[in-house]
Each structure stands twice: as C-alpha cells, then as structure tokens.
Fold this sequence. Notes:
The structure holds two protein chains of two kinds.
Chain A: E1 4-15, E2 18-29, E3 33-37, H1 44-51, E4 59-64, H2 71-74, E5 77-80, H3 92-102, H4 108-118, H5 131-143, E6 149-153, H6 161-174, E7 180-185, E8 197-202, E9 205-211, H7 212-219, H8 223-230
Parallel strand pairs in A: 3-7, 3-8, 5-6, 6-7
Antiparallel strand pairs in A: 1-2, 1-4, 8-9
Helix pairs in contact in A: 4-5, 5-6
Chain B: H1 12-26, E1 34-35, H2 38-45, H3 49-61, E2 65-68, E3 72-75, H4 79-103, H5 108-122
Antiparallel strand pairs in B: 1-3, 2-3
Amino acid sequence: xxDVILDIKNVYKSYGDNDVLKNVSFSVRQNRIVGLxxxxxxxxxxxxxxxxxxxxxxxxxxxICGMAPCVETKALxxxxxxxxxxxxxxxxxxxxxxxxxxxxxxxxxRAREMLGTLGVSPxxxxxxxxxxxxxxxxxxxxxxRRAKLYVLDExxxxxxxxxxxxIMSTILGNFGEGSSILLSTHIISDVEQIFDDVILLREGRxxxxxxxxxxxxxxxxxIDQLFRGVFKC
Amino acid sequence: MVKIVFDNNIPIYSQIVDRFVIDICSxxxxxxxxxxxxxxxxxxxxxxxxxxxxxxGELESMGLLFTERTAGRFVTEDAALIDARRREMSRSVVSxxxxxxxxxxWNDEETVKLITVRRGENE
Lengths: 233, 123
C-alpha cells in the first residue's frame, strides 16, 4: 500500500472571478507533520476546506487515502476549523458528547484528560470561554479522534506564546502512529520545530516546498526567515 | 535532559546530536542509562518525533547509543569511546579559544598565564 495519506494534484479554485488556488499540487506521507505556510489570503483555508470536504466545486484532484473528499473521508480526517464551530449555549461536556456521537474514532477519555491538562472546565458554556480557551477546546476535540489525517487550520493564532508550547506538545503527544498532520499557520517561528515538511503558499500557488531540515541546511536560515524572505513586499 | 533552546537557523537534529554528545561526555547521561522513549522525549523537547529519531540514529552510528531490541535505547558502556569523544571535543574547544586569544594579540604562553591568574581569582 502506498504511504501517501493526502494527494493534491493540479487543484484550482475560484470564488467568482477571484482565483484563490492556482494549480496546487503536493502530497503528505504517513507519519509526517507538514506545515502549510502563507500570509493571510494565500489560500490556506480554502485548501483545507477542500481537504475536509467542505468545498466541492474545485477542479483538479484531491484524495485522502485514495478517495476524493466525501462522507467516508470525513471519518478519516479530523478537522480543526479556524473559527468557533460550536454554538455559544453549548457546554464543554455537551460538545464532547456531540463529538462522541458523530465520530466513531472519538476517544472521550482522552478528551477529558486533555481538557483537564489545558485547564478547560467541562461545565462552562462555550459563550463563557475566552478566545484562547475556545481554541484549546476545539483542539482537544480534534486531537481526541484517532484519525488518519489531522487538518489544523491556524491552531495557535489566538493563544499567547506561553500556551503555544502546551498546544504544540498536545499535538505531538496525541497524533497516533500511522497518521499525519497538515497544520496551517502564519506564525512560524514558534512552531517550525515540529515540521517534517513545509509548503509555502503565495497568492494561491506553491512557492516553495521541501523537507524542513534540508531547507535549513541548504539556506542556513530558519523556516521563519526563509518565509520572510519569500514574502518580503 | 533539560529543555534545549533551539537555533532555528541550524538543522534541529544536529543540535540534538550535539546536546546528547555533551551530556554523555559530561556524565549527565551516565554510561548504560536508558534514553526516554522517542515519542515522550519528542514531546518534552517540542520537536518532531522523526527529527529526534534521526538524531538518535546518528548517535547510534557514532556508537554513543545502542538499541536493545525490546528494552529500549541506552547510552554506551564503552568508557574508552566516551573518553575519546570527550577529548576530541575538548581539543576543539581549546584550539578555538587559543585562536581567539591569538586574534587578541596574546601568545600561547601569555594565554596560559592569563588562565592561571583567572583561576587564582576564582579560588
């Protein structure tokens, strides 16, 4: 069996006459953590929505374990949206139950543990949580699934630098053997140590991609500096 | 092993290798001691498990670590090998230092004197 978990080939997507993705191709292999990097508006979220099956009117090919995004791939892909996807009135406990109902691979025990570690109290309503707490809750729910592919859209954007370390180790500690992670971010320096590969998106095109350690060696620069170099205006 | 402060301009795995070599040479990681399992250690260090695996692989090929099939990974018990590595590292630290002192205009004899004086101050 091939070890490619995610395969994106010649993907184009436009909103009206606004071309958001222009011929994007890359693949994610098993056991890899891939950083999807790009400034605001470079197409990261659109690409992630295609992978998680939320957008279907694109051209080109997107495959998860050999299947185009569909109901079945949703069972394989654990998606962390870049905004709150749960209603304000819901309590943390209810959200856990909802996820347990929806996803066969959801591990309730793990979710409770993780929320405890991150200090999210189960009885609070989502509307009562701070922005950072909401992000932590969504991350816990996402990482509590035993998925093949975790697609994390900006998991650290709203939390303070001290909490970033906790979030990164939560991610590292909870993705299972045989699965992969695609993580989008525009804050690179705090997270680049966990990437195997990076993909730099610019105005809907892949500007640069490769093995993070090779890129560091080749350029003698951090991924963050490389990124800043590419996107200098 | 304490947290490593990484310099993102240099490959992460080589910084992990360097750190292990120093800890083994200094005895912080004593001969025969067990290395924390990859996943756990990767989490502690905040690095990718594949990167850590690569670093540990390199340390194995240097002979400083070895894997016991099921028990895990350990620091070598070959004291001579550790000593040789330690001397080698020390030599390069010393020559680097001497080089810097020469650049400041001290000859080697004067440098040794300065070290002696400095030692006296510390006591």
